[in-house]
Amino acid sequence: MSSPAVSSYYWKGFRDSAPFVLVVGPFGMLFGVLAVEAGLKLVETLTLTSTVFAGAAQFTALQLMQAQTPILIILASSLAVNLRMAMYSASLTPYLGAAPLWQRALAAYLMVDQAYACSIARYETDRDMTVPQRMRYYFGTVTPVGIVWFLGTVAGAVLGAQIPESLALDFALPIAFLGMVIPMLRTLAHVTAAGVAVTVALLAAGLPYNLGLMVAGLAGMIAGARVELMLRRRGTWT
Q1: Which residues of 120-149 are buried (b: 16+ CB within 10 A; e: fewer)?
Q2: pTM, whole model, 2 decimals?
Q3: For residue 3, pLDDT beyond 50
Q4: Which residues are within 8 A (CB) of 190 and not within 5 positions of it... i.e. 6 or more apart?
C-alpha cells in the first residue's frame, strides 16, 4: 500500500467525524462558561480540558466541585463516567493492538466518543484496512472534534456571561450522546445495558454526590456483559 493511500484514510476519518463539531462546539462553550462561573481561572479551565480531555467527566467533576464534594467522590464519579473508555479500548484492540506503543498511547489519550463511534463502524465494515490505515483513520476522526472542543472551551471561558441564554448551549450534551449511542445499539446486550443503566439512573437519582450515575453505569455494564455471555453460550450472539 502506497503512502498516499495510507494518508488518505486520515482525511476519511476527518470527514466522517466532522458533523460532530456541530454539537461539540456548543458543548465545549458550555463547559467553558460553567467552569468560569464555578470560579476556575482561564488557565485552570484549559488545563482541565487538555489533561482530562473527556467532556462528560469534566462536567461531572465540575458539578461535584461546586457542591463541595469530597475529592475521593469526585475522582470515583469521574472514573465511573469514563469507564466506557475502557470498553472502547477493549473493542478497538483487535484492530489497533499491533500498532506501535507510542501510537496506541496517543490514541488512548485522545479517545473520545465520536472517534470511537466512527472508527469501530469503519473497522467493522472495511475489514481489509491495514493497521497503519486504521491508525490514520482514527487520528483523522479525533482532529476536528478535539480542535473544536478546545476552541469551544476557550470561547466559553473568555466570553462567559456575554453568551446569551437563548442559545441554549446545554442542548449539546444530550444531543451528542443520543447521536452516538442510538446507532450503536445493535445487539440485545447493547440494548439491555442501555436500558438497565437508564432505569437505575432514574431510580438512584436521589443519591448524594451524583452516586446514582456511578451505580447506573456499573449496573448497565454488568447487565450487558451477562446478556452477552448468555448469548455466546447459546450460540446466538449477533
Answers
A1: bebbeeeeebeebbbbbbbbbbbbbbbebb
A2: 0.73
A3: no
A4: 184, 224
